[in-house]
Amino acid sequence: MAVNGNHCSNVDQYRRKSIKSGPSDAETCDTTFPSFATKAIHVGHIPEDWPYKEVIPPICLSTTFKQSSPAEPDKHDYIRAGNSTKDCLEKCLATLEDAKYCRAFSSGLAATTALSNLLVPGDHVICSDDVYGGTQRLFRRILAKNGIEFEMVCTSNAANVGKAVKPNTKMVWIESPSNPLLKVSDIAEICKLRPLALGADVVMHSITKYINGHSDVLMGCVCTNSEEVDKQMTFYQLALMTHASVPKDDREKLGIGDNLIRLSVGLENAEDLIKDLENALANYKK
């Protein structure tokens, strides 16, 4: 069971294969500050992490990062997988939710879609009957075509949720207060606020809404204490990335081997590029 200002989900099985990934920087919940408000302001904001010790984390705008050697990044390699600014946000949100892991997405609906990929044909989902329109369309008009059953119930009465549970129920998705009718579900009865501390599986936030509050950010996140779910979320963040997502057999047919180095050529002088490559290869052989 999981909940946030907008949505609540309950996933009891994670059956898809995922790539191996390391733990998030947010893996350990920060207990330095006992107050929720103080944690929200300070966790993840460590001036000593930055070259000039900025008290406000600098915004990382680079999409790619220099690697010490091919396929061996110091920490990050591509912005969708992570960057220093994203690390700060994920650590802070994980701490606020008492979670080991947090993965930030480009929108709340992107986070919803990633979580939906935990479902497989034949699964049953209980959903509030007055959820965000984008969520309804995703569930009813897209995922339902894949053999996933969605049952919309009025979650304002917790008993309705209990009555709707089936042997194949894998997720409960709640929005409270709902959008647009402002229905209030008895979250304390269904799963409790800040539910990870009480045994819930996943918390999904539409950061665009309450967390941001200024109508100038589009973002979402998934927080969890499950390493398996975190691996799944990491995989879905990277699933569409270039050649890494191409099956090995297909890469070999295309001539894309592990020793292939992709070179992005811009406006640099050709002779300068050749010298730079020769120097890099010479140092690599050493």
From TrEMBL:
Biological process according to GO: cysteine biosynthetic process via cystathionine; transsulfuration
GO terms under cellular component: cytoplasm
Keywords on record: Amino-acid biosynthesis, Cysteine biosynthesis, Pyridoxal phosphate
Source species, domain of life: Eukaryota
Enzyme Commission (EC) number: 4.4.1.1
The keyword Lipoprotein appears for this protein: no
Cofactor(s) required, per the database record: pyridoxal 5'-phosphate
SUPFAM superfamilies listed in its UniProt record: PLP-dependent transferases
Biological or metabolic pathway of the protein: Amino-acid biosynthesis; L-cysteine biosynthesis; L-cysteine from L-homocysteine and L-serine: step 2/2
Entries under InterPro entries matching the protein: Cys/Met-Metab_PyrdxlP-dep_enz (IPR000277), Cys_met_metab_PP (IPR054542), PyrdxlP-dep_Trfase (IPR015424), PyrdxlP-dep_Trfase_major (IPR015421)
The protein, known as: cystathionine gamma-lyase
